[in-house]
Batch of 3 targets.
Target 1
Amino acid sequence: MNGGTRQGIDLTRVLHAPQRRVFAAWTSPEDFAAWYGGEAEVPLDRVAMDVRPGGAWSLVIVLPGVEMPFHGVYREVSEPDGLVLTLKDGSAPKEAEGEIVTVTFTDLGDGTTELAFQQRGGSLTPAQYAAAEDGWEAFFDALAARLATHP
């Protein structure tokens, strides 16, 4: 992809978990805290999720010497098929809507689910999108591990 025209992120993963379990991993504070942030710590007491259209979500990723807050609003909640939510980090302007994240969960049968992830908004530079994509890849590795250990 041309680095100067990048406008978002598209990722697809096949997860070895049923569709409803994958949906729950995105909507349960315990699950979300366990995988969002990859190897970094997300203290459960710093996670808030009001999973309904218009409901807010927030969390804080804690690294040695730094805290990285993320927050947004659920736009669509379609259990167990997916979610649309906004995503902002601590550096985003207050008036900015933030990035739009769409995740779709497709039941592939045999207890597997395809996760299709899309992030759009154009508010990041190409380098920031590349870094964010690497971050999401690490998060999804942690999600797969969470689903394996907490079926």
Target 2
Amino acid sequence: MKINETTINVRYQETDMMGVVYHANYLVWFEIGRTAFIEDLGFKYHEIEQQGVYSPVVDVTINYKKPVRYGDDVHVVTWVDDYDGLRVTYGYEVRYKEGGVAVKGTTKHVIVKQDSFRPVSIRRSFPDWHDAYIEAMESYE
């Protein structure tokens, strides 16, 4: 399966009073990883939005295993976890540079029309994206 690894520079303002990264910031990091993954596939979010659609998150799972602190070297590993032609689920792991997983999670997305928020088939409306998702799930690196 195709993966993307994106380095995250933990900023002080991302931490809470306990000195660890505030839990909601991992969702921002997931988005950074997802955007980089999509760019690796040869696409950009703004290009799909110019075609009159959005890709909202419809479900999130997240499992916090170990805290990340200011100054830690981490990266987000992103891949396509599941895809059915309508919905795509991205998988994520926030990993320490020296090894070990801090956080695991997924986000599920659909493509919807901007004006009505009605779902759009990726398979039919965006065949290039469809093919890229299928290839990303099947490829080995």
Target 3
Amino acid sequence: MFNSIFSKKENDLDGKNFKQKFETTDKAELIDVRTPGEFSSGSIPGAKNLDLMAPDFQSRVQKLDKDKTYFLYCRSGNRSGSAASLFEKLGLKSYNLVGGIGAWPR
């Protein structure tokens, strides 16, 4: 029982694997799900901001291209993990950066 609760999800990747998969995936899009304030204080180059806490987040996600693969991150990996679950429910392929922006290899 506990194994299913605490098990690592298939789409959760550490920094090295996340970056490598992002760089080698066709039609990959990098999305920062932090607030606009957090995003403006520094982000991974090339990332787009899609604030998980915005009231229109789900409707914006529903309009995304289902042919793309989305690479999601936040500060710690919690919000992007929640976002990745929503993406999955909506039929979108996504990966979560475990450990958040700080785990992105420099």
